[in-house]
Amino acid sequence: MRLEIDNAAVGYDGRVVLSGASLELADGQIGCLIGPSGAGKTTLLRAVAGFEPLAAGSIRADGEVLVGNGVHLAPEKRQMGMVFQDHALLPHLSVIDNVRFGLFRWPRAKAKSRAEAMLDLVGLADYARRPPHQLSGGQQQRVALARALAPEPRMVLLDEPFSSLDPDLRERLAIQVRAALKATGIGALMVTHSQAEAFAMADLVGVIGEGRLQQWTTAYDLYHRPANPFVAGFVGEGVLLPARVVDDMHVGTGFGVLTSDHRLLSAPGSQVQMLLRPDDVIHDDDAPMQARIVRRHFRGADFLYTLQVDDGEQVQALVPSHHDHAVGQDIGIRLDLEHVVVFEPEAPTGTA
To answer: What rounded mean pLDDT belongs to the chain?
Structure first.
């Protein structure tokens, strides 16, 4: 199913929290919405499901208007599968009976066969006769996905489906859920607070904040080509360094003159900001530039060092953990930039 959201506005408690949101998902694609709490992610998802009204705009499925222009198709007629945060499994039914719960209009043998196929798809065929309480949280969420897929929906909507699980399980389960969805060819739209889940799950990711959909693109482009400072600050780690426009393609920085990844509109001499990610800063003992470690965060495989350079600015560097340096120590650094992302005051969406 092709999903089109056009200039949508949603809200709650009598106020609009998100407006002008437009995005498209092609048939079979998986999209994720991320953003701060209260930004309107879940409200938009519920509007797609039909549980919330739109304040403006429209939502279409394969060209059919679901809501907008005076139309509001009832949720049960939209053929959307839902997966919730709390699994919503029925405790008095077995796993397989939970999966075929929505197939009551199907012939009994067909419903049983479909439920068995969906449990096999999510790797739980051997658990069909167990009650839900005998399954782990991750297994219960896979049962919930199997139940959502069983009626052959046009799309699956997932509302923070992994948030109640242990952190080390979430990304792994997101990969498994993605594989199950891709195996069926059914597209999905998911809301999550976790960037790791979104990046593991999605073909396209949207960042919602400050009342609008800031950017809708691939996870790679969100990280390496953020549309504006909000996205740059929300996705991943990094710092915005002051820079000066040299000409329409170059900026001067404390690291020298660098080539922008887009043509600059600001006049030479104008002050701009440059995004520097931790993986752009390389620890190199032979580098002429030295930086002092002011903070360090051990992550197992690596350290995230916060470093102060000679001009007083601070940058971050991701360094393998066998380079164990103390706070206050000077280390050599150099830049290894694939994309020089520059934000101009006159054009805050300069990299869009």
So the answer is: 94
